[in-house]
């Protein structure tokens, strides 16, 4: 992650809406495969890979949401399943399912999920339990049918947007950035309460951290900091504002949101209202009485 | 009433009697007309309004009209134009409408009739000056509504010029209309009044007709004044009157749009040409008119002006014209030549004032009414005066000038008079800008130079100080785990529901902030549904108390600061712009506001409003209309208010402590003042909302009919009001805390519905307030501080003028029955006696005081520009601030913001602790500086002074200046020292006071903030006072003392020399040498030659004298104590010795010594029968006196030859005489020494005095007491001083 943080600082993180649109337009044609990132990187060499990936991932999720119902109709699923069965029969070694997903313009991981679900379905149409399904997706060796297992595995590792692996990576990135944030704060001798401490104290809404002593970033007071290991686009930012940021403001006053993978510049328009966006840990920090730095930092458990 | 006025003007009744009558509760001075004071005052006010209405409506540039046109619909029209009265017509203020006292036309007719001796009905007169039809709000008028004087006064001249004469004529004929021509406007409007009014107040006619019967000729009395047919407008052919149907002419404003339309061409007939004084000008203009050629607007205006002024000449004011019916006019001047399109404002000249004695008389009456608080709102009256002052009469005729100026000048005269009582003291507290404008007003200068001078003077004294504006950032209410976490909710569900409600509440608030100023945005439409959603959830979850707390906290957070004030009456900001140190953002904001907001003059009585964010909370409550929530809010508001009302504000420490403590007192008092300000503002806010919520269910947009009202009163009188207003009020009066209670009670009461004031509880409270108001005379000094009083008077005056308070309430005396003011018997000095209100607070609470400035500014701009718009004068300020670079300043601001933010999410106790510690440490730092640095500096200064004085040809005053300057420079060190002191002490205190569990970061920050606050407090006080108050004052007193003593003892070394060289004992009496030195200025400053300094110490002598004296006065306890004559003699000798030796006793002691004892001693001892003759002792005493004992003049006088010989001649029994002498002398000496020159008692007075002592046998006892009392304290002082 250190290298990643380093990387972040080298690249341009915030995008103007125009730039963002440009990227989005490009991602429209992309499939969530290994190759896609390469293409994107070549096209937009000035932007960090994480930013591009994050943007693509968000866009792809939107696309998936739009088309999800299309793929989830029982007859469609049946069709996919039949096609897979016949394909696997004909070419047992080929990545049949992956190709099928590409052809259907569906995320490979999701395709794998659908097919696995169909495969596990009982004779009377009863659905398998989610836990079983999830564990099998995570660990294809659990799947009784080895060909299916191989196909599923090919799908999940090839998908850069969905799937247990991606979920795992996303979770890790989130965690890492929170840790990164805490490190930065400690580095600056800023004392704070983290989410867990806040929950214990009975707060109803908890940002990632609350500063015990507020700071000023670029002239704006900051009481709390929320870390987002993703790109801040319109849709996600709006959702976050309504579900999180404003709630934090309502309780703790103005604060800072760090979109580690950047955001659309134009979204940073609530500064005077008390929500500040940054794409990294701020450099311009004014402390409440410089002498405070001498105080020992307060260690969160 | 008219009769009384008439008698006054005819000089039948002495003005003084009337004034006395007004001031005191006496019976009417005019026995034939029994008039109640309560009735006379409104009559007088109406009369003045009426008389001056013409002046006020003249001229296109009367600025106050502007708002009328700009926002005709808002609140009904409330223009300040028609004088104060204009503003009334809208905000109701029916002062001038027929309150019971205002008599119908008959009275006035009678009065003028008898005055002039001419039947007013026969003289041609016209409805001059104004036409009600053009009143902008005319169409809003409902038949049941009253006609108030304001209705007649609003119409701006522009407007009245537009309707044709024809239409005026028809209007005049129309019965239902108020603009009756007829016998002058007075009769006319009264009549209209009456007819309009008769339905509403049938009971009131009786008294009036009685008066009219008494005074008026029978013919008048028989007329049915209410019937227009019977009582037609005079000057019109009756046929005309009959034929025209009554119809209303809608107002046709001559504004931009009017200018484009063709002027009406109805000037076909001029019904006035037959009038007694034909005007050439009008005739000349009539020609083209009659042929109906379209006139230019300008011409039309001119014509109307002519017409108006002509009429004015004829009837300008019946009262005055009847006295001097033919105002000499210079009509010989070619009239045509005067017709110029240019409107010039004639400059009024005092010398041209006609009827000045009558005007003076009226002014006198008026002033008394104001100064005695007989008017409901003194600011309204002052506003009226200022309006008269700034009225612009646009006349082109020279000869018109005098006429038109009559009333203008009357205003001037009022002003001149008014200033006599309190205007000048009053305005001294208005803001600087207003003062400047007033002082620069040339009319003030020409009519009352004295007032001008006082104003100019006051400008300097006006200390318009504004604290730096508070941070503009609006915080949310912090989540406090102690009150807000789950354990405070009855269920998890409720907790989560409240989580959502909080978020929705803020969402709504944010949305309101974003959109409420947009056109067409509707609160209820946009937010109502969401708000009601919150409410229904509240009810299901039972979270009302939580929500009520959130709501109130947010309300306080957003609305409490005086900075958040976007009311139409803005804060006095002119000074702010020039002020350094104000937050630059706030300044920009204010500048922006000034440029954007239309600066309308709204008059001194704006209706209650919810400025700024308050509007949101009001609308929220209205939209929510949730009785549960309201109940919770009420409970909470009540509790908080009563708590605030009890807040203890420390009075400044009694000044016994002396000079040293005063300075510190200042500082602490400042804190208390700030605390008071914040408490008062908060209480006002809460009270307004409490009032709003409690009266919300009863609010109606229209005044309910009498039946409904009565029913409502009956119904509501049974339920308990939310707040026992009466109890709160009387408690506050008893404890003299009205300065805190009254302003918030006023806010509460201002929210009343129409029925509210009629309920007994509120009526009684109003009555009490009224009595309080009457008692609070600004012109007199009472125990209450002036600005405190001013605030109380102005909020009360405002309350009495708001629409829901019944108009008659002020002029009834029923309250004297209902509400009795308890005599505040408790002597405890309450808040009222502490100077708590400053100008800023006054203007924050009463933004309408700023109206004066607007009016005056408008006059200034209007007199140069015709536009009539208000030119805003914006003081240019440089972008660069002189003291610190902007970056630095913004850094400082950021730090302050950070500090505030720090407390936001901490428990409130932390903030209290920090503030308390900072306050104490800061204060202690100052005390410490005084005790150490300042006294050190003064010591240093003294040394420098002594050294300087020792050097030859030293100039003490020059020396003083240079030392003082040096000390002041050195004194700046105090800042550094105080900073060090605060830095040391603050962290210690904080560490002890915060809990051990506090996180280190929080503790460190708290320490730092405390440090900063304490340092800031100490340093700001020190920097303001160290050189002035502290060092200079201390040094001055030290300097004086040094100089005084320098005159006494020689410099130490020379004294030593003398000591060394003078071993010989002193000779006891040196008759030859001593007398030479005794005279006045050449004082004995050194020991006689050969002085061994062996004489008794003065204290010993004093003690001995005291013992002897005791034995004389009280009687000796033992024989030992008995003072023998020889002892007395010896004592006297020792006194002489002691006096002679200058080692210890300087002048002061020496002066004291002989005074006290010898006379005493020997006198009574002699009386007790010892052998040495009294005479001898007395002679010795006299010799002593003649020698060198007495250095001050009074003593010499006392012991002048005459006196002494009288003493010597006195018999033995009269020995107490010297005692008498001594006490007088003592007093003189003491006075002399304490610096203020006593009035030199004349010798004869002394002798008189002495002889009275002489006759009194008990004198020695009295004397003893007095003397002991005096000497004990003083002696020590002198001793100290001698060193």
TrEMBL record, chain A:
InterPro entries: CDIN1. One of its GO terms (biological process) is erythrocyte differentiation. The keyword RNA-binding does not apply. It is found in: Cytoplasm; Nucleus. Keywords: Cytoplasm, Nucleus. The keyword Cell membrane does not apply. One of its GO terms (cellular component) is cytoplasm. Its main location: cytoplasm. This is CDAN1-interacting nuclease 1. It comes from Gasterosteus aculeatus aculeatus (three-spined stickleback).
UniProtKB/TrEMBL annotation, chain B:
Residues 94-104, 213-227 have a biased composition (Polar residues). It holds the Pfam family Codanin-1_C. Residues 73-92 have a biased composition (Low complexity). One of its GO terms (biological process) is chromatin organization. Residues 56-112, 125-262, 1044-1091 are annotated as: Disordered. Residues 832-946 form the Codanin-1 C-terminal domain. GO terms for cellular component: nucleus. InterPro entries: Codanin-1 (IPR040031), Codanin-1_C (IPR028171). PANTHER family: CODANIN-1 (PTHR28678:SF1). This is Codanin-1 C-terminal domain-containing protein. It comes from Gasterosteus aculeatus aculeatus. The lineage of its organism: Eukaryota, Metazoa, Chordata, Craniata, Vertebrata.
């Amino acid at each position: 992650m250190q290298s990643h943080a380093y990387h972040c600082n080298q690249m341009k993180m915030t995008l103007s809406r125009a730039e963002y649109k440009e990227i989005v337009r490009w991602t429209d044609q992309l499939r969530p495969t290994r190759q896609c990132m390469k293409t994107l990187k070549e096209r937009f060499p000035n932007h960090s890979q994480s930013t591009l990936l994050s943007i693509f991932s968000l866009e792809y999720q939107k696309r998936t949401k739009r088309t999800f119902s299309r793929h989830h109709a029982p007859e469609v699923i049946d069709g996919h399943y039949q096609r897979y069965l016949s394909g696997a029969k004909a070419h047992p070694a080929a990545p049949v399912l992956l190709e099928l997903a590409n052809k259907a313009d569906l995320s490979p991981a999701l395709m794998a999920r659908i097919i696995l679900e169909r495969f596990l379905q009982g004779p009377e149409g009863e659905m398998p339990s989610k836990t079983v399904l999830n564990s099998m997706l995570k660990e294809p060796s659990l799947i009784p049918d080895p060909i299916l297992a191989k196909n599923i595995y090919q799908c999940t590792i090839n998908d850069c947007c969905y799937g247990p692996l991606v979920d795992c990576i996303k979770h890790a990135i989130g965690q890492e950035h929170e840790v990164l944030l805490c490190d930065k704060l400690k580095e600056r001798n800023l004392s704070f309460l983290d989410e867990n401490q806040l929950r214990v104290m009975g707060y109803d809404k908890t940002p990632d951290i609350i500063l015990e002593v507020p700071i000023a970033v670029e002239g704006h007071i900051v009481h709390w900091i929320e870390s987002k290991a993703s790109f801040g686009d319109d849709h996600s930012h709006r959702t976050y504002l309504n579900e999180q940021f404003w709630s934090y403001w309502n309780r703790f006053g103005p604060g800072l949101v760090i979109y580690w993978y950047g955001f659309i510049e134009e979204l940073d328009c609530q500064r005077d209202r008390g929500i500040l966006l940054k794409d990294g840990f701020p450099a311009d920090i004014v402390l409440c009485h410089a002498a405070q730095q001498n105080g020992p930092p307060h260690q969160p458990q | 009433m008219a009769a009384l006025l008439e008698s006054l003007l005819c000089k039948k009744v002495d003005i003084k009697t009337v004034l006395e009558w007004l001031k005191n509760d006496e019976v009417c001075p005019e026995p034939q007309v029994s008039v109640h004071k309560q009735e006379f005052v409104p009559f007088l006010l109406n009369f003045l309004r009426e008389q001056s209405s013409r002046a006020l409506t003249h001229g296109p540039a009367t600025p106050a009209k502007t708002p009328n046109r700009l926002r005709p619909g808002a609140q009904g029209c409330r223009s300040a134009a028609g004088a104060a009265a204009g503003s009334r017509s809208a905000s109701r203020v029916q002062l001038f409408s027929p309150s019971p006292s205002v008599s119908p036309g008959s009275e006035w007719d009678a009065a003028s009739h008898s005055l002039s001796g001419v039947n007013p009905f026969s003289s041609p007169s016209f409805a001059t000056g104004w036409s009600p039809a053009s009143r902008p709000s005319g169409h809003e008028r409902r038949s049941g509504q009253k006609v108030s004087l304001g209705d007649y006064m609003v119409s701006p001249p522009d407007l009245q010029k537009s309707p044709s004469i024809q239409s005026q004529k028809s209007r005049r004929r129309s019965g239902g209309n108020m603009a009756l021509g007829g016998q002058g406007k007075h009769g006319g409007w009264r009549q209209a009044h009456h007819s309009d009014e008769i339905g509403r107040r049938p009971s009131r006619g009786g008294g009036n007709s009685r008066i009219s019967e008494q005074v008026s000729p029978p013919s008048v009395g028989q007329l049915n004044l209410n019937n227009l047919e019977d009582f037609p407008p005079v000057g019109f052919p009756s046929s005309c009157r009959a034929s025209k149907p009554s119809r209303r002419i809608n107002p046709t404003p001559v504004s931009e749009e009017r200018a484009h339309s063709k002027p009406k061409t109805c000037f076909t007939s001029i019904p006035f040409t037959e009038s007694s004084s034909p005007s050439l000008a009008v005739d000349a203009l009539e020609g083209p008119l009659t042929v109906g050629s379209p006139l230019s607007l300008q011409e039309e205006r001119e014509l109307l002006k002519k017409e108006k002024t002509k009429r004015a000449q004829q009837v300008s004011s019946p009262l005055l014209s009847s006295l001097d019916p033919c105002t000499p006019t210079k009509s010989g001047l070619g009239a045509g030549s005067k017709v110029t399109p240019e409107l010039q404002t004639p400059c009024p000249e005092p010398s041209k004032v006609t009827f000045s004695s009558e005007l003076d008389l009226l002014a006198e009456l008026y002033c008394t009414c104001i100064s005695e608080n007989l008017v409901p709102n003194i600011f309204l009256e002052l506003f009226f005066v200022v309006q008269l002052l700034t009225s612009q009469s646009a006349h082109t005729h020279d000869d018109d000038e005098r006429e038109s100026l009559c009333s203008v000048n009357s205003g001037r005269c009022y002003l001149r008079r008014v200033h006599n009582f309190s205007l000048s003291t009053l305005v001294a507290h208005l803001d600087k800008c207003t003062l400047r404008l007033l002082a620069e007003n040339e009319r003030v200068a020409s009519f009352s130079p004295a007032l001008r001078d006082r104003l100019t003077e006051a400008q300097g004294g006006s200390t318009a100080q504004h604290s730096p504006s508070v941070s503009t950032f609006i915080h949310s209410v912090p989540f406090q785990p102690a009150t807000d976490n789950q354990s405070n909710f009855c269920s998890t569900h409720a907790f989560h529901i409240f989580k959502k409600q909080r978020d929705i509440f803020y969402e709504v608030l944010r949305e309101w902030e974003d959109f409420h100023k947009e056109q067409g945005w509707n609160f209820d439409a946009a937010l109502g549904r969401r708000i009601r959603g919150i409410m229904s959830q509240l009810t299901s979850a039972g979270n009302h108390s939580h929500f009520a707390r959130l709501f109130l906290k947010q309300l306080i957070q957003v609305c409490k600061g005086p900075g958040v004030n976007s009311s139409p009456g803005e804060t006095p900001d002119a000074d702010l712009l020039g002020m350094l140190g104000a937050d630059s953002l706030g300044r920009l904001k204010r500048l922006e506001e000034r440029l954007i907001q239309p600066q309308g003059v709204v008059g001194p009585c704006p209706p209650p409003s919810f400025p700024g964010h308050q509007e949101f909370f009001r609308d929220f409550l209205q939209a929510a209309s949730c009785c549960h929530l309201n109940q919770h809010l009420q409970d909470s508001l009540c509790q908080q208010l009563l708590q605030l009302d009890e807040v203890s504000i420390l009075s400044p420490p009694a000044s016994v402590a002396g000079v040293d403590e005063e300075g510190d007192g200042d500082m602490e008092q400042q804190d208390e003042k700030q605390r008071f300000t914040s408490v008062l503002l908060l209480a006002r806010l809460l009270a307004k909302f409490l009032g709003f919520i409690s009266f919300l269910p009863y609010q109606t947009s229209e005044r309910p009919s009498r039946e409904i009202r009565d029913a409502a009163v009956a119904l509501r009188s049974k339920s308990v009001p939310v707040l026992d207003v009466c109890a709160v009020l009387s408690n506050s009066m008893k404890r003299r805390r009205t300065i805190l209670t009254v302003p918030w009670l006023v806010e509460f009461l201002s929210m009343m519905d129409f029925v509210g004031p009629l309920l007994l509880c509120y009526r009684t409270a109003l009555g009490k307030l009224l009595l309080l108001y009457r008692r609070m005379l600004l012109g007199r000094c009472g125990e209450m501080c002036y600005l405190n009083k001013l605030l109380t008077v102005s909020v009360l005056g405002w309350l009495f003028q708001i629409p829901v308070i019944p108009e008659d309430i002020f002029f009834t005396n029923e309250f004297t029955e209902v509400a009795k003011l308890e005599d505040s018997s408790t002597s405890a000095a309450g808040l009222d006696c502490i100077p708590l209100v400053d100008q800023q607070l006054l203007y924050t609470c009463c933004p309408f005081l700023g109206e004066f400035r607007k009016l005056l500014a408008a006059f200034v701009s209007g007199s140069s520009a015709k536009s009539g718009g208000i030119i805003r004068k914006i003081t240019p300020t440089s972008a660069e601030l002189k003291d610190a670079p902007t970056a630095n300043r913004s850094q400082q601001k950021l730090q302050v913001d950070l500090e505030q933010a720090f407390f936001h999410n901490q428990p409130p106790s932390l903030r209290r602790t920090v503030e308390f510690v900072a306050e104490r440490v800061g204060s202690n730092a100052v005390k410490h500086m005084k005790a150490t640095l300042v006294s050190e500096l003064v010591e240093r200064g003294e040394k420098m002074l002594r050294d300087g004085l020792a050097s030859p040809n030293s100039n003490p005053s020059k020396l003083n200046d240079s030392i003082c300057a040096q000390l002041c420079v050195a004194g700046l060190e105090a800042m550094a020292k105080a900073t060090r002191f605060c830095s040391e002490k603050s962290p210690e205190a904080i560490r002890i006071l915060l809990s051990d569990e506090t996180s280190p970061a929080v503790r460190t920050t708290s320490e730092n903030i405390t440090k900063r606050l304490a340092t800031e407090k100490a340093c700001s006080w020190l920097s303001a006072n160290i050189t002035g108050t502290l060092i200079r004052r201390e040094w001055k007193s030290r300097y004086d003392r040094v100089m005084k003593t320098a005159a006494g003892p020689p410099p130490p070394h020379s004294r030593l020399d003398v000591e060394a060289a003078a071993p010989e004992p002193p000779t006891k009496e040196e008759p030859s040498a001593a007398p030479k030195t005794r005279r006045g200025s050449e004082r004995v400053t050194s020991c006689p030659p050969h002085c061994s300094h062996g004489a008794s110490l003065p204290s010993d002598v004093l003690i001995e004298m005291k013992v002897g004296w005791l034995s004389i006065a009280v009687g000796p306890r033992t024989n030992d104590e008995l003072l023998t004559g020889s002892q007395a003699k010896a004592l006297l000798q020792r006194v002489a010795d002691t006096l002679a030796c200058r080692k210890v006793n300087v002048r002061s002691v020496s002066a004291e010594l002989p005074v006290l004892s010898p006379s005493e001693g020997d006198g009574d001892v002699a009386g007790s029968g010892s052998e040495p003759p009294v005479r001898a002792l007395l002679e010795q005493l006299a010799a002593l006196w003649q020698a060198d004992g007495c250095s001050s003049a009074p003593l010499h006088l006392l012991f002048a030859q005459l006196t002494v010989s009288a003493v010597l001649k006195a018999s033995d029994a009269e020995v107490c005489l010297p005692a008498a002498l001594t006490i007088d002398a003592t007093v003189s000496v003491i006075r002399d020494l304490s610096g203020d020159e006593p009035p030199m008692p004349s010798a004869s007075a002394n002798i008189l005095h002495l002889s009275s002592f002489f006759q009194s046998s008990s004198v020695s006892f009295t004397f003893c007491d007095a003397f002991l009392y005096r000497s004990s304290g003083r002696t020590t002082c002198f001793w100290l001083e001698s060193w």
